[in-house]
Amino acid sequence: MIEVVAPGPYATVQDLGRPGYGHLGVPRSGAADAPSLRLANRLVGNPEGAAGIELTFGGAVLRFLRGAWTALAGAPCPIALAGGSPGMHAPFWVPAGGELRVGTPAAGLRTYLAVRGGIDVPPVLGSRSADSLSGLGPAPLAPGRVLPVGPTGALPPITVDAAPARGGAPGALRVLPGPRDDWFAPGALAALCAQPYEVSQDSNRVGVRLLGRPLERAREGELPSEGMVAGSLQVPPDGRPIIFLADHPPTGGYPVIAVLAAAGLAAAAQLRPGDRVRFRL
């Protein structure tokens, strides 16, 4: 059992989401930076899809009521524990009664904490993920919340001592044009890639809102709602793109000028307000 002493600015339980329910209007959700959750789980010997804690901008304090192996991956944060200062991207033991303090990341936005056995909250539609858009899954963490940890007896031994940290800030995020780039004025795709955009403070798990030169449309009106995918660059009437993240709506009526290549989704999830980002076809 893990007691939440302080959750930081925003913390949720996340696994790899609940795919297959888009036709019912249910987003996939899951970890915004899935590779980091997978890595944290591998470090403690969990299946990659086990539920962990997604910390937004760090700042959490967690008290372990029983000893457990733990690892953190994603945005690098200072970590404090009585008797030492564990590092990122390596498994470490938290004794019973130990209080783990996670500081603020120097870069990036989301940090993932995995505990051996996984966070064992009840699943909803096959997933333990909290969905900020639909409200499915467990509520965001709050002080006093106690999280159960799953059994560890059937897990393989921990065989990884450490993993290399991901490289620094990404270069330009690669995008594929369309499917509705024909709704925009000639040269709109070139304009999208010609200058950096700034990440707005209004961004969240639904999407990264961008500030910069508006993209001009060639058509008026709106589309009938159609399916959306993570990484879609949807452009509302103000002309400023939004990168859809894990909790994006399954459908939308604003045109999508381009879609991130899958490899860029994790980098987009680590963008924080004030960061600048460029796109490349």
What is the gist of this entry?
This protein is mainly beta and about 280 residues long. It is built from 3 helices and 20 strands.
Structure report:
This protein is mainly beta and 281 residues long. Helix content is 8%, strand content 27%. The strands form four sheets. It has an eight-stranded mixed β-sheet. The chain is elongated and about 60 Å long. The N and C termini lie far apart (47 Å). The mean pLDDT is 94. Keywords: ATP-binding, Hydrolase, Nucleotide-binding. This is Biotin-dependent carboxyltransferase family protein. It comes from Planomonospora alba. InterPro entries: CT_A_B, Cyclophilin-like_dom_sf, PxpC.
Q: What's the assembly state of these chains?
A: single chain
State the strand order across the main sheet. Answer: 19-12-13-16-15-18-11-20
Structural class: mainly beta
Poorly predicted residue ranges: none
How many helices does DSSP assign?
3
Radius of gyration: 20 Å
Order of helices and strands: EEHEEEEEEEEEHEEEEEEEHEE
3D shape: elongated
Distance between the termini: 47 Å
Largest sheet: 8 strands, mixed
| Share of residues in helices | under 10%
How much of the sequence is in beta strands? 25-35%
- Secondary structure: number of strands: 20
Mean pLDDT: 94
Pfam family, one: CT_A_B
Keywords: ATP-binding, Hydrolase, Nucleotide-binding
InterPro entries: CT_A_B, Cyclophilin-like_dom_sf, PxpC
Domain Carboxyltransferase: 23-281
Please describe the structure with a list of short key phrases separated by commas or semicolons:
20 strands; five-stranded antiparallel sheet; Cyclophilin-like_dom_sf; PxpC; 281 residues; mainly beta
